[in-house]
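Handout, section B. The chain below has 111 residues.
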Amino acid sequence: MEVLWLGHAGCHDVHQAGAKAAHLSRLASHYRIPPGFCIAAQGYSQWAEVRDRTCSSLATPSIPPALSDALASAYRYLGEICGITDPSVAVRSSATDEDGATLSFAGQHET
């Protein structure tokens, strides 16, 4: 799973990071904002395909080890950047098909 950091060029791409994260990343490259990261859309899609094939409507799927490891590693690094072991974070969805130039799907996707 690829982690994209706000402010880095790879995170500016709406198709890789989703609209919210890409716009925030562009801002982060020019202005001081709190550090953050997102999981690349391709990595999420791979997990979603597995989840959709294996998940019954009654079960909550577990996070695959590769995604869990990527998130844990990024969170630890975020703590290093912030200078604290357990930083508080805000979690947001940033779908690649919402909040475009001509469409907005705010509130229509389950997070």
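Note. The CA atoms of residues 38 and 91 lie 9 Å apart. Compare this with the example in section A.
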